[in-house]
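Training component of the fellowship. As part of building independent skills, the fellow (R.M.) carried out the full modelling exercise for a liganded target. The chosen ligand was zinc ion. The inputs are recorded below so that the supervisory panel can assess the work.
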Amino acid sequence: MSDVKISVESNFEKALSFASDLIRIPSLSGREGEVAKRLWDEMETLGFEQLRVDEVGNVIGVIPGGGQAPPIMFNCHLDVVAEGDHSEWDYEPFSGLMSGGFLHGRGSMDIKGPLALQTYVAASMKGQSRGDLIVAHTVFEECGGWGMEHLMESKIVEPALVIIGEATDGDICIGHRGRAEVEITVTGLAGHASVPERAKNPIDLIPDIVAGIEEIKRDQKIDSILGASTVVATSLEVLPESRNVIPDRLTVVLDWRVLPEMNQGQMIEQVRDAITRQTGSNLEGFEVKVATATETQCSYSGLQRERDSFTPGFLMDPNDPLVQVAASAVGKQGKEGPADVRPWAFATDGGWTKGVFGIPTLGFAPGKEHFAHTNTERLDIEDARWSFHKYPDLVLALQNHLSSSNIV
Ligand SMILES: [Zn+2]
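Fellow's submitted model of the complex:
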């Protein structure tokens, strides 16, 4: 253990400076190529084996372990959200500047800082790790997680456990709600506004649709850990948009923060039932379609896909021994006792690893959630140092647990 600690200590500063480099390379979803290249070079230098970039552009490497424990996968993402107006930042968003005890800039916390830490922790554990450490940093996390879905489907890595580096402020995070965009599209008959009797105006159905949405809201379940599933109308569009034309198309968009047990089919059925009930005979002459919204995504590696606007949720049982082992191994920063165990408020790639593919998944990383996606994004360097030192303890404890439970 002490050898690991010494090696980890000497690598922290290098990890921070690598994080700075990564921040200087903008990488919106679908444009992660340059950051992927920089990461590849670093991983090659650090001695990662089986280094590869998969079809969709994820970067994957392995630090081989002693073969006594099943593989653990570290995961962060390569993309960041847009930085917005540079003049509204106190520090240039792509400077990667360290000042006042913080690493600043877009991606400092979400997630290039933690990405650099995870990558260096894995490399530092060479020769100490009881099992393989897979490092897989994925694309498109900020747009539904195409990278992780692809990685899991391809089965080129098959970890027994995934540790995600999304901000937990040193806690152990065990899940989050999913998010879906559901579209209700009503088609009628367009016409001139001067002769409304010749048209079928979908706007006339709005009261029934709103009543249907209210019915769905009342039906949402509450989870004692993740909170309530929520659904809300966020957009209303008509086509054609001319103000003297009765439109033939109305689309209402629902933003649905959904509990992990609910799938897209169930959501669509629930909406369809409620709308049919509320509209009743008013529906005559109209057609209603309910579907998950879709978006065409293009990866920097040249793949193009029409993808559902759906990010799955997940939840680990807080009493799962893996969660307990993780919380004890990490402990509470500056205090006695195990780390706090809680869900994230936002979605992560864990929705794919655990929610869809069933692989146990935990989150552990420095960083306070409220800085994410803002123009004050920053990573507290002391918090980063603390979690960097805790990572090997976490990994070794989880490996011990995984290997002993395998023997049983
Ligand atoms: Zn993130």
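The panel noted the following from the submitted structure. The radius of gyration is 24 Å. The first helix runs from residue 2 to 23.
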